[in-house]
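Repro:
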Amino acid sequence: MKSLSGVSTVTEFILLSFPCSKEVHVILFMLFLVSYILTLMGNGAIVCAVKLDCRLHTPMYVLLANFSFLEICYVNTTIPSMLKNFLSETKTISFMACFFQFYFFFSMGTTETFILPLMAFDRYLAICQPLHYPVIMNNHLCMNLVALCWVTAFLCYPIPIYFITQLPFCGPNTIDHFVCDPGPLLALSCIPAPGIELSCSILSSLIIFITLFFILGSYTLVLRAVLRVPSAAGRRKAFSTCGSHLAVVSLFYGTLMIMYISPTSGNPGGIQKIVTLFYSSVTPLINPLIYSLRNKDMKAALRKIHMCTGISQSK
């Protein structure tokens, strides 16, 4: 901390992460390192499969590849710093680095809440408007919508973060979390900031509920359309294309709503960390399994990549 006009000002924070013995930290380091590598490999495999297999150059798989790329970016906002913390004695993060992590962590999460409804909208068009689907949802429109999701998400939080950085932080500087989260950060401010706290809560609530209601509305229409399909095989095929997405939506939104409807909701620190860990690290790890295990085309593309890799290595 530095002194400014007789008042100590925080220049760095301590991310407490998971306080435990050094031996347990080493075990956690190995566990999260393996999880991190598997997440990168699983999501990277989906991106490569969609890029290399011409049969997957359709909006549905383009969206899936973008979603997997987003998951790779998402875990990189938290896991590397967490791994560093496990082996660090000081566990410090600079003031600016903390807020940069805050910005990218929330921007990536917001991008995910925008892309998931876009994937639901794609399934709605494919099932409810099958004749018009190739004309409406072409690859050009798909990529434009994806770009809009990214740009809009990254424009949501600069203003709230700017106002939080202007708050006086004069100590203590220990954040009981593994990521720079708005709740613990606002709690460290020397003065109460109910306006900023309420603004963050309203913004998060609007993003979560509007996108969730859009997804629920899309799948309500999809369900109505599927139930009108005369053949059981047709209904199973329609449900299988939506089942993976619904599983991912349930995992992501279920944990997200616990945390960010109210940034300082009074959840115990341990519960906050576990819930945040689940949607920021566990779901990116299992999402590739959910999508690849339930999708025949994706499994075929991944097998093709595996065979090509094996042949090139044998040469």
